Amino acid sequence: MQDAGSQRMNHALQITEEAVQFVRVAQNSADPQVIQQAQRKLEQAKSALEAFGEVGDSNTARDPVSQGLAQLEQSRTTLAQSVSISDPVGYHLY
Questions:
Q1: Which residues lie closer than 8 Å to 75 by C-beta, 6 or more apart?
Q2: How many angstroms separate the CA atoms of 8 and 43, rounded?
Q3: More exposed terminus of the chain, fewer Cβ within 10 Å: N or C?
Q4: What DSSP assignment string belongs to 36-81?
Q5: Is the distance from CB of 27 to CB of 78 less than 8 angstroms?
Q6: Which sequence spans correspond to the domains of the chain?
Q7: Residue 33 has pLDDT above 70, yes or no
Q8: pLDDT at position 50, please?
Q9: Residue 57's pLDDT band (boundaries 50, 70, 90)?
Q10: Is the pLDDT of residue 42 over 90?
Q11: How confident is the model at residue 61 (pLDDT cuts 50, 70, 90)?
């Protein structure tokens, strides 16, 4: 049986994986709502990981939290790049 700390870490990592999946979907979508949903999911995952990192044991929490935060930052960058490519500034359809 897992202790409470392990359960919180697993939950934070699950949210992180969901956020990464949302970003993958949003990359292929021009729908602003999908993109906003992915951005909210990224923020939710970041908050969960940071909260666990603050209360978790530094020996057990550091690696998964750091890896999760790095994965989220990479996903955030990827999403930002795909949004700027799919919606170039100054391009308007009339």
A1: 19, 20, 23, 42
A2: 17
A3: C
A4: HHHHHHHHHHHHHHHHHHHHS-HHHHHHHHHHHHHHHHHHHHHHHH
A5: yes
A6: 4-85
A7: yes
A8: 86
A9: low
A10: yes
A11: low
SS3 1: coil
Pick from 43, 2, 54: which is nearest to 19 by CA? 43
Contact criterion met (CB below 8 Å) for 82 and 27:
yes
Short-list 34, 20, 13, CA closest to 74? 20
Q: What phi and psi values does residue 88 have, to the nearest 5 degrees?
A: -65, 145
Mean pLDDT across 44-60: 73
Q: How far is it, in rounded angstroms, from Cα 17 to Cα 3?
A: 21
The token duo for 21 is 């999946």
pTM given for the model: 0.70
Q: Which residue has the tokens 């990479």?
A: 74
Q: Are the C-beta atoms of residues 13 and 64 closer than 8 Å to each other?
A: yes
A 10 A CB-CB count for 73 gives 12
Side chain identity at residue 52, one-letter code = F
